[in-house]
Write a structure and sequence with these properties.
The chain has about 400 residues and is α/β, with parallel strands linked by helices. It has a domain of about 190 residues: Vaccinia Virus protein VP39 (Rossmann fold), CATH 3.40.50. The longest helix is centred in the middle third of the chain and has 15 residues. It is globular and about 65 Å long.
Length: about 400
C-alpha cells in the first residue's frame, strides 16, 4: 500500500497543474475480489453467485435476512454515486466498487464525489483520510447554504478536514478561525486554508474552551462575526430524553450555543445528519430552534439533497440556519434535478424540467486507472482525458457558474 507523505514530495508539485493527489485505493481480500468480479455496474450482493456466497458467513446472513441494495454495490456511470461514508475502504458497507475497474474507489474519486477540487489535498495516515473524506460536508452543498448569508468573517467549529469551510469560502466568506479535535484533520485543514487560524482543541474541556474563545477574539480583532458555522457530531444530542447541562451527550451542542451567546454572530449555520429530524420525535431539533430563538435569532431548518447542488452523490443533510436581522432564512434555490430522466421529451433534463444531476462517469472517468490496493499519493494527470464540465470544474478550469451555464445549454 502506498503511504502518503508530504516530506517525500517536491516543493514545486503544488504548482504543477498536471498532478492528481490521493489517488490510491484500499486493498481487498481474494474472496472480496471474487465478489467484485461477479458484480456488474449498478449491481450489488444479489448478483454474487451462490458458490461465492457460501464462502462468506456475512453474505449468507445478508442473503437469508435481506440487506440493503447498496451492500457490495458497484457504481453505475450514468447515475450519481450513493452516499460516501467513512467505509469506502470496504466493499460490503456500501456502493464503493468502481464502475468499470475491479477495485474499490480511490480516495481522490471519493473526494470528487464529495465535490472537493483536485487541488484539495488530504494529509495524515491512510486510514484517517477515509474518515476525513467520508465525514466531510460536500463543499458545493456547503456553498449553497453559505450563499444564504452576506459574506463576512466566519468561524467554523468541528471543522473536520474543511469541507464546510471550503464551501463557505467558495460563497465569499472569510474563515478567520476553525476548531477541530483531530490532529490529522487539522493538518489537512491548515494545508488547504493557510489564511485561517486553525486550533486543535477539545471544546468540552474547560481550558480548551477558554483557548478557543481567545483564538476567536484575536482573529476578529474587535470586528463583527458574520457567521458561526458548526457541524456538531450527532452524539452530542441526548438520546435519553432529558436536556441537561450535566449530560455529557449534550455537551457539544451546549458548548456551541455558549459560543453563539458569547460572540453573537449575525448568522448561524449548523449542519447535521437527517436523523436529527426524527430524534426523540423531533424534540431535539425543536430544542435547538428554541435555543436559537432565545438568543435572538429567527431560525429554520432545511433538508437538502446534495445532487441538487451539483454534487455527484445522493447524500441528504440537514442545515439549521438563523439570523439576528429578523429576516427568515430561505431554502437555497435548487440547481439540478434529482428526478429520473424525462425520456419522453428526449432532453437532458429530469421530470421536473431541471438539468440532470452529475453522474459517476462525469465525475471520475478522467482519472488514471489503478489496480486494487495501489495508486499513489501523487501521480501524473493526463488533461487529454477530460470529458465533462464537472471534471473541468474539479481541475479548477471552470467556475460553478460556468458549469451551470453549460449544463443548461445541454437541455
Amino acid at each position: 500500500m502506498v503511504e502518503l507523505s508530504v516530506a517525500t514530495e517536491c516543493a514545486n508539485e503544488a504548482e504543477d497543474a498536471n498532478l492528481v493527489y490521493n489517488h490510491v485505493c484500499a486493498r481487498v481480500s481474494s474472496l472480496d475480489m471474487e465478489m467484485i468480479r461477479a458484480i456488474p455496474p449498478g449491481g450489488n450482493w444479489k448478483n454474487i453467485p451462490p458458490d461465492i456466497v457460501n464462502k462468506s458467513a456475512r453474505l449468507r446472513q445478508i442473503r437469508q435476512s435481506g440487506g440493503r441494495t447498496t451492500y457490495y454495490g458497484r457504481l453505475c456511470d450514468d447515475m450519481p454515486s450513493y452516499t460516501i461514508s467513512t467505509y469506502f475502504n470496504r466493499p460490503g458497507n456500501g456502493a464503493f466498487i468502481h464502475p468499470t475497474q475491479n477495485r474499490l474507489i480511490s480516495q481522490r474519486e471519493a473526494a470528487r464525489f464529495q465535490s472537493f477540487l483536485d487541488s484539495y489535498r488530504f494529509l495524515g495516515s491512510f486510514s484517517s483520510i477515509f474518515k476525513q473524506i467520508g465525514n466531510a460536508v460536500p463543499p458545493l452543498l456547503a456553498r449553497a447554504a453559505g450563499a444564504l448569508f452576506k459574506p463576512g468573517r466566519t468561524v467554523d467549529l468541528f471543522a473536520g478536514a474543511g469541507g464546510l469551510s471550503e464551501g463557505l469560502r467558495l460563497s465569499g466568506h472569510s474563515i478567520v478561525a476553525a476548531a477541530e479535535i483531530n490532529p490529522n484533520m487539522c493538518a489537512t485543514y491548515s494545508l488547504n486554508h493557510p489564511s485561517s487560524e486553525v486550533l486543535q482543541v477539545d471544546i468540552t474541556d474547560g481550558q480548551g474552551f477558554i483557548k478557543l474563545t481567545e483564538c476567536i477574539e484575536n482573529a476578529l480583532s474587535g470586528k463583527t462575526l458574520q457567521l458561526l458555522a458548526a457541524g456538531p457530531p450527532c452524539q452530542g444530542f441526548s438520546i435519553a430524553g432529558k436536556w441537561t447541562h450535566t449530560d455529557p451527550r449534550n455537551t457539544l451542542i451546549f458548548e456551541t450555543m455558549k459560543l453563539v451567546e458569547r460572540f453573537q454572530p449575525e448568522n448561524v449555520l449548523f449542519e447535521n445528519v437527517p436523523g436529527i429530524v426524527s430524534m426523540l420525535s423531533g424534540s431535539v431539533l425543536q430544542k435547538v430552534l428554541e435555543m436559537l430563538g432565545s438568543l435572538g435569532y429567527r431560525s429554520d431548518w432545511f433538508a437538502l439533497r446534495a445532487e441538487q447542488y451539483c454534487v455527484p452523490q445522493r447524500r441528504r443533510r440537514i442545515f439549521i440556519v438563523g439570523s439576528r436581522k429578523g429576516v427568515q432564512p430561505q431554502r437555497p434555490e435548487v440547481l439540478l434535478s434529482c428526478e429520473p430522466r424525462n425520456h419522453t421529451m428526449g432532453t437532458e433534463e429530469g421530470a421536473d424540467g431541471l438539468p440532470l444531476p452529475v453522474t459517476v462517469g462525469e465525475a471520475i472517468s478522467d482519472l488514471p486507472p489503478i489496480l486494487s490496493g495501489f495508486g499513489a499519493g501523487v501521480c501524473r494527470y493526463d488533461s487529454d482525458q477530460v470529458s465533462s464540465d464537472y471534471q473541468r470544474m474539479m481541475r479548477g478550469q471552470l467556475s460553478l457558474e460556468g458549469f451551470l451555464r453549460y449544463r443548461h445549454k445541454q437541455d
